[in-house]
């Protein structure tokens, strides 16, 4: 009797728990305000009583309402009097208990419906959660694929820029992409894979079919798209560096072209007019002789300038081959110089012929002036070449290259004493001519008829050469210092990269060992991996520091480093793979915990499974081949014969653990198989039987029954997805709960 009383009291407490102002603790004073009786009626037949209008301070109304409704609609006779209950300090316990038991028997049928509703709620909640996870995966996959689709054309754009500044801005944009835009997407990709694995695990645990994403949104599709992004990214960076080198080379060549062209144009200025003069027609014999010698000196000078014209043409050709953006103006200027050079040659030949025709009339010649002109012209050309070389720009990338330029410059300086002797000899010739003019009073008008090069010009250019030498010394010293700084940057980067690279490799190997070893429970392994992940994340400042050093190297335009075999790209890829590997390993352990808890596997069983799996995983790949898997099953006591029946059974097992026919079995699939027979999960038949209880044993269910027995959101979920019932016993609005139940478990379309 006592256990029956306690059971009835517990039933009352559970049914009235959601109602305010109702606190059933006994079968006497807890029922005096009448709210307990009203709550029991409203809990099972809410349409009979408007509970919201009841007041705790009006017990007579509450009691009479409950007694009248129970007698009229529930066939429960009035066994109690409202005034007696209110007027008694402690109502009769047995009377109230007898009356309440009438409610219990009246509503016993509803108890079964409530149990059935709870089961359906549980199943629908799982299905709703899985659908939300599927929607989240589809959206995240779509967003990531869209970002990849928008980014790849940008990385594949190879439209060159005309200026170094524009290309360096592209390089800076690329660095921002690697540093700011890509890392969050790497995390999204990793999270997407984790969500996918978690969803599949939950579907397996709830006996649902595996989730198949929309076409083009599989994890493999995303990995393929990501691989395309990585490939485009690699080619883009290489193209940027090549373009910067090309523009650097073009700027150097263009400046060299302008310098040589300006020097040549300065030299040719007025030469055509000089060659077209008719002065020989009215000249004396001595003047004609002088004109002829002067012309010979000019031809010598002209031949000396042939190399410069060829250099100008060669530079212009190279600029064209390198697609210099201002090639039209370069070509026009080069063509003008070549046309002028050809014209100078033709004019020179024409003037020589005219002078030679007149040469027979000429007798006098001044050898000293001629010797001066012949020696002054090449010396003048040498000085112009020296000035050009001393002002020539240079590009070097190593200390050895700048040392080579310095050695060449020192060799040039060693030739200056001999050149000064030549200058003094040339000036001595001129001084001797002046002495002869003064001594013999020769009327030479104080000019050299064979050349326009004066001692003043020679001295001026010589002084200019002497001034350019120390400037060249200073430029070489500054470049040498810059190359030393670049070498320090190489060594600094190399020292860090040679530590970080092996560290990443070591961590990858350690994670691989952790994933296959057994040390403690799965929770211990998970905690160990999370601590490991934290230590890896704490290493990030070293990567950032290396990125900073790499940026300094990029800004210094350093393209090679003999102090390390690691590039920043190697470090970035290794770091990203390390973060992805630890995240995947943690996710695998979490899924193992989900499987263990859902299937009721003990830690000892899990350890036994892991030990057997590791024993036959001889290559430590984390997977078993078919033969290894068969041997593992046999070692765990699974009976697989060598006959045709055994082979068929093993083929059936392989179709379960390797549905994609990849030829390997993962540890997760192995655990799922080993625990499959002991699973305590709902089935389509169980859900169908629960719906049949709610429908009152009918083959269909109505909208009103769903809304009365299920929570609002889950009732509407069923109404929206249930097909109309078309059986012979159908009524208007009848719904087919049988096809709906099979669809929940993937046995038909939902």
Automatic annotation (TrEMBL):
Gene3D superfamilies: 1.20.58.60, Calponin-like domain, EF-hand. Residues 123-150, 288-322 form a coiled coil. Residues 2-108 form the Calponin-homology (CH) domain. It comes from the Eukaryota. It holds the Pfam family EFhand_Ca_insen. GO terms for cellular component: cytoplasm; plasma membrane bounded cell projection. Keywords: Actin-binding, Calcium, Coiled coil, Cytoplasm, Metal-binding, Repeat. InterPro entries: CH_dom, CH_dom_sf, EF-hand-dom_pair, EF-hand_Ca_insen, EF_Hand_1_Ca_BS, EF_hand_dom, Spectrin/alpha-actinin, Spectrin_repeat. The keyword Repeat applies. Residues 604-639, 645-680 form the EF-hand domain. It is found in: Cytoplasm. GO terms for molecular function: actin binding; calcium ion binding. This is ACTN1 protein. The lineage of its organism: Eukaryota, Metazoa, Chordata, Craniata, Vertebrata. The gene is Actn1.
């Amino acid at each position: 009797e006592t256990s029956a009383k306690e059971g009835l009291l517990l039933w009352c407490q559970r049914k009235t728990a959601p109602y305010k102002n109702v606190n059933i603790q006994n079968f006497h004073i807890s029922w005096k305000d009448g709210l307990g009786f009203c709550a029991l009626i409203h809990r099972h037949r809410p349409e009979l009583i408007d509970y919201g209008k009841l007041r705790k301070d009006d017990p007579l109304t509450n009691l009479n309402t409950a007694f009248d409704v129970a007698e009229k609609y529930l066939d429960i006779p009035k066994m109690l009097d409202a005034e007696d209950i209110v007027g008694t300090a402690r109502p009769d316990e047995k009377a109230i208990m007898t009356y309440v038991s009438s409610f219990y028997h009246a509503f016993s049928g509803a108890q079964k419906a409530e149990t059935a509703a709870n089961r359906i709620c549980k199943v629908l909640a799982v299905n709703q959660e899985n659908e939300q996870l599927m929607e989240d995966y589809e959206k995240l996959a779509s967003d990531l694929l869209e970002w990849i689709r928008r980014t790849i054309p940008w990385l594949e754009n190879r439209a060159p820029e005309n200026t170094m500044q524009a290309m360096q801005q592209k390089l800076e944009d690329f660095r921002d992409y690697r540093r700011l835009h890509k890392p969050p997407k790497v995390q999204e990709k990793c999270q997407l894979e984790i969500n996918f694995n978690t969803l599949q695990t939950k579907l397996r645990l709830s006996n649902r079919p595996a989730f198949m994403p929309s076409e083009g949104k599989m994890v493999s599709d995303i990995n393929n798209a990501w691989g395309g992004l990585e490939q485009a990214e690699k080619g883009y960076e290489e193209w940027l560096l090549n373009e910067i080198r090309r523009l650097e080379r073009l700027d150097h060549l263009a400046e060299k072209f302008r310098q040589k062209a300006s020097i040549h144009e300065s030299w040719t200025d007025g030469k055509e007019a000089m060659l077209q003069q008719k002065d020989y027609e009215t000249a004396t014999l001595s003047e004609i002789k002088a004109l002829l010698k002067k012309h010979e000196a000019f031809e010598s000078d002209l031949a000396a300038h042939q190399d410069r014209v060829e250099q100008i043409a060669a530079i212009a050709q190279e600029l064209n081959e390198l697609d210099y953006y201002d090639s039209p103006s370069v070509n026009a200027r080069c063509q003008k110089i070549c046309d002028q050079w050809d014209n100078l040659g033709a004019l020179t030949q024409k003037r020589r012929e005219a002078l030679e025709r007149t040469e027979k009339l000429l007798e006098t010649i001044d050898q000293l002036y001629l010797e001066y002109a012949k020696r002054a012209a090449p010396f003048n050309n040498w000085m112009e070449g020296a000035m050009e070389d001393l002002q020539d720009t240079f590009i070097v990338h190593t200390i050895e290259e700048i040392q080579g330029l310095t050695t060449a410059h020192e060799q040039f300086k060693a030739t200056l004493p001999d050149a000064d002797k030549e200058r003094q000899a040339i000036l001595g010739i001129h001084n001797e001519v002046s002495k002869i003019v003064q001594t013999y009073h020769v009327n030479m008008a104080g000019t050299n008829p064979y050349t326009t090069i004066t001692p003043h010009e020679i001295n001026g250019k010589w002084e200019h050469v002497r001034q350019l030498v120390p400037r060249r010394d200073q430029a070489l010293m500054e470049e040498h210092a810059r190359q030393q700084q670049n070498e320090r940057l190489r060594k600094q980067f190399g020292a860090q990269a040679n530590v970080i690279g092996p560290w990443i490799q070591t961590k990858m190997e350690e994670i691989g060992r952790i994933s296959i070893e057994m040390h403690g429970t799965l929770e211990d392994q998970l905690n160990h991996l999370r601590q490991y992940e934290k230590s890896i994340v704490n290493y990030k400042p070293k990567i950032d520091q290396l990125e900073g050093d790499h940026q300094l190297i990029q800004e210094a335009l350093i393209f090679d480093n003999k102090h390390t075999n690691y590039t920043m790209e190697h470090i970035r890829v290794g770091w990203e793979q390390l973060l992805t590997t630890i995240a995947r390993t943690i996710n695998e352990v979490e899924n193992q915990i989900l499987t263990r808890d859902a299937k009721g596997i003990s830690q000892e069983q899990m350890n036994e499974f892991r030990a057997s799996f590791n024993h036959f995983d001889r290559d430590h790949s984390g997977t078993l081949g078919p033969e290894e898997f068969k041997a593992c099953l046999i070692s765990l006591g699974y009976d697989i014969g060598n006959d045709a029946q055994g082979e068929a059974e093993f083929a059936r097992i392989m179709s379960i653990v390797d549905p994609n026919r990849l030829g390997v079995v993962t540890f997760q699939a192995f655990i799922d198989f080993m625990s499959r027979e002991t699973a305590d999960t709902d089935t389509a038949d169980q859900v169908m039987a629960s719906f049949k209880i709610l429908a009152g044993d009918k083959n269909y269910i109505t909208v009103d029954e769903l809304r009365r027995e299920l929570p609002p959101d889950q009732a509407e979920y069923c109404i929206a997805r249930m097909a109309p019932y078309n059986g012979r016993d159908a009524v208007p609005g009848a719904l087919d709960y049988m096809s709906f139940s099979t669809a929940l478990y993937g046995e038909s379309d939902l």
